[in-house]
Specification:
about 45 residues; mainly alpha
């Protein structure tokens, strides 16, 4: 039964890691845009 788990499959494992990495990069980029954007707006005002 363990052999049928998706986590055992290398293809699915690499796909899940890639998706996780992309999500992390997007979250970090969003935080940076919010932080830098907030600071720039405060400096302009």
């Amino acid at each position: 039964m363990l052999q049928n788990l998706p986590l055992v499959s290398w293809g699915n494992g690499v796909f899940m890691i890639a998706v996780f990495a992309i999500v992390c990069v997007l979250l970090i980029a969003a935080v940076l845009v919010l932080v830098l954007g907030g600071k720039n707006k405060e400096d302009i005002n």
